[in-house]
Amino acid sequence: MSLHSAASSDAYLPPARLTRLAFDRRSAAFDRLEFLLGEVGQRMQERMPLIRIQPERALDIGCGHGQGLAALRAQYPDAQIAGLDISGAMLAHAAQRDPQRQPGWLGRLLGKRPTFDLVQGDLATLPFADGAFDLLWSNLALHWHPEPHLVFPEWHRVTRQEGLVLFSLFGPDTLKELRSAFADVDAQDHTLRFVDMHDIGDMLVNSGWSTPVMDMETLTVTYETPERLLEEVHTLGGLRHPPGAFAGMRGKRWRAALLAALDRRRNADGVIPLTFEIVYGHAWKLAPRVAQERDAEGRAVVPIDRIGRRRPPRA
Hints:
With 315 residues, this protein is an alpha/beta fold. It has eleven helices and eight strands. The protein is globular and about 75 Å long. This is Malonyl-[acyl-carrier protein] O-methyltransferase. It is an enzyme of class 2 (transferase).
């Protein structure tokens, strides 16, 4: 397979409990998707030099197998890094990236404290204190939550004043070729739907985040066989049913028609393209502005006891 980039309805998602169980099952095969997660994560990192921040504590939300944790550790070697995922199986894989968690003499040699902390939890009910982190990072995870409008207020709660959230997620055009192929064989919706970029921006503002910046690009992944395409979309979580279930639910003839519909979408190079719309966003948690006193003529008044007062240091 190969990957190319080009500038460039409401979401239906299962409850969080089902999402946890689904990703527990998919975790063993998730390594095959690291090319996509790594590519998008690298593009997120390329945005970081434009954002000046040196966090003391950073959290990777939806950390999966820990690829982002390693990237955050490399970029911020002095920061305390934590990872959260709803799937315990995903976290078990992430722990394998941490040499200080390894058993035997290697772990003892490197010390007992892990390189990063790992916590199981839901994106909208984070098990952390208010203002616990300077930086929240989330790569291709937010779109799996059934109620994203509840996620951003919780992320805002655990972020310090002047802290930053930086994330990526799938947009509505993701899997459009696959939806088109399904439409050739029946009128039902077999893929998940994703929230529009502008709606995500509105959610940020309504949750108290300041100066949100949103942008989007499309990545095209190509597949040599329709079977491999279906398998990877299922591992990623984009299908409502496993590929193997289609034959049992609809019959072998229906499945053959779906594979043929995907085959008809081969491009001039003889491969099947699949679009992923990647939405990027970042926003700041800023202290609310205090209304400035004014005199009778409308001029700003600064009380004498505030002159020269500095912002108190962080705890």
